[in-house]
Every structure is written in C-alpha cells, then in structure tokens.
C-alpha cells in the first residue's frame, strides 16, 4: 500500500520520519514500565515522546489526547498508535501498538497457564509501581496546565472540568465535559488566543484520505457483519471475534469500563468461569501496559475453542482492531479540521478540559488508590523530583519506587 507523506515539522518537536524498529523499541520500553492505568500511560507518553524525544510538541500531543478521548476504545493505546503512525507510517502504528501491548499480553498468557483460578495478591513492589504513577501523572498535569490552562477562560474551563469530574466520575460525564468545553471554546475563545502552540497545519500524517476512508468503512462493516456471520455460521472462532471486537468498538473510557462488557460476553456462555475471570482481572492489575490485554488472558483460558496461545491472539487482535481502524480512519481528516480557526478555538477549550479531567484523575483513582500512608506520599514526592526536577529516566523512578514499596511492605 502506497502512502502519502506530507512535509513539515511540528513546532518545537522533531517531526522527521523515524524507523519502524525505533518506534517498536521505544514502545516496548513503555510497555515494560508503564504501570498505573490509562491516565498514567498518558503521563509516560508525554514524558517519553514530548519531553525526552520531541517527536511531537505539546500542542500536537494535547490534540491527539483530546481526539482519542472522543473515540471508543483504549484511549492511551490509541494515542500511542497515532504517534507511531506519525513517526513511521502505518507500520509504525502497528509497531507502537505491538511494543506497548505485548509485554502485558505475554505475562497474562503465562499467568493463564500456571496460575489460573488462584487469588492474586498485590505485593509491595507492585504498590511501589502505583506510587510512581502518581508522580508521572502529576508531572504531566503540571506541564499541560502551564501550556493549556493559563488565562482566565482556559483556567476556568480546567477548574470546572476538574470539579465536575470529581463529583461525577464516569466516562460518560468525561466525554460530555470535553464536548461541552469544545463548544465553549468555539463560541467564546478567540482563534488568536486559542492558537497556543503555533500553526496546526504543521502536523503531518502519512496516510492517504482514501486509505482513511477505507479504514472507517472496514470498522463499520465488521461491526455490522460479524454478528450476522456469527448467527449464520455458529462458528466458535467467529463468535469470539465478534464478542471481543464489539467490546473494543463500543466502550468509551477504556480500562476498567470494558470489564463488565467482557464479563457479559464470556461468562454467561460458559467460555470462562466467574473464578477464572476474577483471577485474571487481579493479574491484569499487576502488569504494565493497557488493561485491554486482559483479553489475551481470557482467550488463553477460554473453552471450548479457540484457547491457549491461539485463543489469546484471536481475542487480543479482535479487541484492539477497532482502535487501530478508528485511528487510521480519523487522523487525516482530523489533521485538516484542526487547521480551521474555529477548530483552534474549540481545541483550546477541549485541551483546557483535558487538563481538568487529568487533574481529577490524579486525585481519584491514581492518588487515592496508591497513597495510603505518609511514607507512600514521600515515595511519590521523590519519584516526582526524579522525573520533573532532575529529568532522570522514568524507568529509574519505576525501579526506585518498586524497591521502596517492597521495603515499606516489610516494615
């Protein structure tokens, strides 16, 4: 498939094309160290892709986050896929997804083989991983706030978004907040003040619009055709693909939001027992990367067929395929839309709202889940200094916090 490459570079960032191997290597490191859920993942991505490597600038990153908040599926994985596509084309997007996803998927498949049905405890080192997530998210919130929530109007949008997100913590409310903030920005923020990071036309996406339209058509065709084929053929593999594809295509908010939908798909038909489902959910909390890789565990323990490694691969690809098709389908049109002055203003409102939503998530669930004692807060503060003040690698903070969490569990 021939791809169209647009010229240009992101203001403040290195938009030159990279290799697929480079994208995979960076994404793999993130997949091995990104603990803490989707909000924390966005913090890790911000540190690696924006702060350290400068593959894109603050404005481009915030716009991608805002876009993926609107799309169904795993938002953090979609942001990673979009960055991979921008860096190295469609294969770069696949490499970004594979690198970020495979570590947790492999770990959960191994768990499915050796620990199915056991009760999963959270050891001290895992608690330390959650503490570093506090630092990562705090650093991302501060960096984005200084960029997108300055001034009375954007600051007010961010504050109101944070308050509403804290009072009504649901993915539906978050989507409504972001949509409302976009309308407020479009109506009341002047385009000149909304354009906070240069010319949006400098953002390039190496995908033809024809390819994007075909990707969107494929997304909707599979969504409509798979249930029909499942009913006609009564094929177990098609039934599995249909169940996991719909879970990935119809859930907003990602992460924990997909769990009840998956449970309804796999437990009532008898593919997975309730105990197996709960054990896998516990294991999914102990691995880095996206929670959607829980599908790999379910595919591995599933009965009657497919199961094992084949079942894990089928379930994993099926649940992530909608996310990839949507990102490929939307990015080129999004790039053109965001160049319009009115869209600049709307994006200014959306970006301010994202800051507020992330700030609310920093408190709940990130802070409330991880910080239980003053000692926990001390570990989080040191990790924040490691990342934000001393500009040391995030993986070093992960190791430090894991060791500190293990030590605290012995006290």
From TrEMBL:
It is a multi-pass membrane protein. This is Chromate transporter. GO terms for molecular function: chromate transmembrane transporter activity. The keyword Plastid does not apply. The keyword Transmembrane applies. Keywords: Cell membrane, Membrane, Transmembrane, Transmembrane helix. Its main location: membrane. It holds the Pfam family Chromate_transp. Belongs to the chromate ion transporter (CHR) (TC 2.A.51) family. It is found in: Cell membrane. The chain crosses the membrane at residues 94-114, 126-145, 157-184, 212-232, 244-262, 309-333, 345-363, 383-408. It comes from Alicyclobacillus cellulosilyticus. InterPro entries: Chr_Tranpt_l_chain, Chromate_transpt. One of its GO terms (cellular component) is plasma membrane.
